[in-house]
Design brief:
Elements (H helix, E strand, L loop, with lengths): L3 E12 L4 H22 L10 H4 L8 H13 L12 E2 L5 E6 L5 E8 L4 E7 L2 H11 L3 E11 L2 E13 H6 L4 E6 L3 E7 L2 E6 L1 H20 L2 H32 L4 E5 L8 H7 L9 H17 L3 E5 L23 E3 L6 E3 H10 L8 H15 L1
Parallel strand pairs: 8-11, 11-12
Antiparallel strand pairs: 1-5, 1-7, 2-6, 3-4, 4-5, 6-7, 8-9, 9-10, 13-14
Helix pairs in contact: 1-3, 6-7, 7-9
Bound molecules: zinc ion.
Family: In the C-terminal section; belongs to the transposase 35 family.
GO molecular function, one term: DNA binding
InterPro entries: Cas12f1-like_TNB, Transposase
Length: about 375
């Protein structure tokens, strides 16, 4: 018998041309769900409503199923102190995917879910790679999880989580295509799919960090603590927005090129070997940016997941010293921005070279312990 593995994936389905009235209704639904979440957080734990009937006094009118799901979603985010946004959610009994076969043999897809007025059926725009999952779902070969109504930019989507069982052999038959991403100071992120590279300069981030550091020093001298905290939040929001922008472009780039796995460095590595530590020193300044890097990796990870692309963390050892073409290892880092190989003569931008090595996972995937941690986290998100 073939070995199967279970995988939870999220499919992002674009609502097809919703009318202005419908968009307004979705917005109201989202606003009320968020308001409810924040009121709920304001209630002492033992007093919190457990059922939709109990929850009604804390909310403007919402469908019971949305209230129930909101309670579950809020409780799942134990650390949340405030919700900037909580999207309306639907459990598997209240959200349905439907397919209609057209006369010309094509298919029209629809989803339906309860709203403020009544249950609505909305046409969705299904991407090619999503069809097989939806077909599988309708055929009973996949288990439907929760769905969320989400606005992204100006578009409305439903994010549908489903559990699929993949045949191991079948999965291995599909050729994998890897993208490697190198993070650094000069180039903030370099995403490379052998022969095709996307650069994001680190200049913007460096400028913003310098700018805020200067303002911080000024305020510190004055002892203006509240202003300092405000400043910190502002910087945080600024970097978060930047990371959303970059991760979005990276994942779009991966989608366009049919990438199946994105590989990034394991930044968590604590048990570095001597040579690794020596190599890391080049990036002493990276620690300053470390949370920004972590966040960027998280964002790339979840956006990739939505696009059905896997994410793997690799051991970063030697990725900047090795020639990505012939595997020769230099003893010292090249002085400039170019990697020149003493053996095969290849000349490549050092960060592209590193990204290509990350894509090939030349030092292997990161330690088991860390991989397991990630899986645990993924499971938690999926639950
Ligand atoms: Zn070489």
């Amino acid at each position: 018998m073939a070995e199967t593995t279970k995988q939870v994936i999220t499919i992002k389905l674009k609502l097809y041309a919703p009318t202005k009235a419908k968009q307004d209704m979705y917005q109201t639904l989202a606003n009320r769900t968020t308001d409810f979440a924040n009121r709920y957080l304001g209630v002492e734990k033992p007093m919190r409503p457990k059922t939709s009937a109990d929850a009604k006094p804390y909310s403007e009118p919402l469908p019971s199923v949305v209230l129930c799901q909101a309670i579950r979603d809020i409780e799942a985010k134990k650390k949340a102190k405030e919700f900037k946004r909580l999207w309306p959610g639907f459990n598997n009994q209240n959200f349905r995917v439907e397919k209609e076969t057209m006369q010309d043999g094509g298919a029209a897809w629809k989803v339906s879910f309860p709203t403020l007025e009544k249950r609505v059926g909305v046409p969705i725009q299904v991407e090619k790679y999503q069809v097989k999952y939806l077909e599988l779902l309708l055929a009973g070969g996949a288990k439907q999880g929760t769905a969320q109504l989400v606005k992204c930019g100006k578009q409305w989507y439903t994010h549908l989580s489903i559990t699929v069982w993949l045949d191991k052999d079948e999965r291995e038959k599909k050729p994998a295509k890897y993208m490697g991403i190198d993070l650094g100071l000069i180039e903030l992120a370099v995403a490379s799919i052998l022969g095709c590279t996307l650069f994001f300069s680190g200049a913007e981030l460096a400028y913003i960090r310098r700018h805020y550091a200067k303002l911080r020093r000024k305020l510190q001298k004055k002892g203006a603590h509240r202003a300092l905290k405000k400043l910190g939040n502002k910087e945080y929001r600024w970097i978060t927005a930047m990371n959303h922008r970059i991760s979005h472009r990276i994942v779009e780039f991966a989608k366009v090129h049919g990438v199946t796995v994105i590989r990034m460095e394991d930044l968590r590595g604590t048990r570095w070997t001597k040579s690794q530590r020596k190599e890391r020193r080049r990036d002493a300044g990276r620690s300053l940016h470390s949370w920004a890097f972590f966040q960027l990796r998280e964002f790339v990870g979840y956006k990739a997941k939505l696009a059905g692309i896997a994410m793997e963390l690799v051991n970063p050892e030697l990725t900047s010293l090795t020639c990505s073409r012939c595997g020769e290892v230099r003893t010292s880092r090249p002085a400039g921005r170019w990697y020149t190989c003493p053996r095969c003569g290849k000349i490549k931008h050092i960060d592209t070279n590193a990204a290509d090595n990350i894509a090939q996972a030349i030092s292997g995937l990161s330690e088991e312990k860390q991989v397991r941690l990630t899986q645990k986290k993924r499971k938690k998100q999926a639950a």
